[in-house]
Amino acid sequence: MARIKVDEHSSRKDIIVSKAASLFREKGYKATSMRELADAVGVEAASLYNHIHSKTEILHVICFNVANRFMSHMESIELENVSAIVKVEKLLRFHIKEMLHQYEEVYVSDREWKHLTDPYLSNFQNQRRTYRKRFAAIIEKGIAAGEIKSIDAPTAVLIMLHAVSGIESWHRSTAKISGKELEENMVTIMVDGLRK
């Protein structure tokens, strides 16, 4: 019987989750079967259950891995002794890099989370709301300090996050600029747009 090939940086569960993220992005969570996932990993479907309990568990892992990475980064940025505009730029760059280099997981977390069930669904929605509020609070501090234009901070956060979500079309494009150029262009447009 075939075994899931691993390397020193990933476990069998990591490989399964990574392949699942790719399939969930391509076909959608609902349309992806455990048999298809087993084929993608190169094992019998029954072997998957030695490493993962269900398709639902995989979605939990993907969504909360991404949410926890973003929240951990937010916490570290909030503690930095730098201006609000620098914090916004650092958060934005992190979002862009995640969408460039962890695309499949971030895409699934952003689009397929609605298939979570409670208590995971409520928890995930709460994390998303909390993250956006904390991002907006940084912008509001920048407005109060005279660094950022007088704008509605929650709206600014939504616009930036939706713009980053649009990197999906960059991944699909056949004629595209480099990831680094994309990051610099997005930061220039969005951060300079906030700057007073």
Q: SS-based structural class?
A: mainly alpha
* CATH C-level of the largest domain: Mainly Alpha
Shape: elongated
Q: How large, in whole angstroms, is the Cα Rg?
A: 19 Å
Instruction: Compute the number of helices.
Output: 10
What's the architecture of the largest domain in CATH terms? Orthogonal Bundle
* Percent strand: under 5%
Largest sheet: none
**β-strand number:** 0
CATH fold field value of the largest domain:
Tetracycline Repressor, domain 2
Average pLDDT score: 91
Task: Give the N-terminus to C-terminus distance in angstroms.
Answer: 63 Å
Low-confidence stretches: none
Full CATH superfamily name of the largest domain: Tetracycline Repressor, domain 2
Q: List the domain count as a whole number.
A: 2
What percentage of residues falls in helices of 4 or more residues? over 70%
Order of helices and strands: HHHHHHHHHH
Descriptive report:
The protein is mainly alpha-helical. The chain has 10 helices and no strands. It has 2 domains: 12-48, Arc Repressor Mutant, subunit A (Orthogonal Bundle), CATH 1.10.10.60; 55-194, Tetracycline Repressor, domain 2, CATH 1.10.357. The longest helix is centred in the middle third of the chain and has 25 residues, at 55-79.
Kindly summarize this structure in a few lines.
The chain is mostly helical and 196 residues long. The protein has helices at residues 12-27, 34-41, 45-48, 55-79, 84-101, 103-111, 120-144, 153-165, 167-172, 179-194.
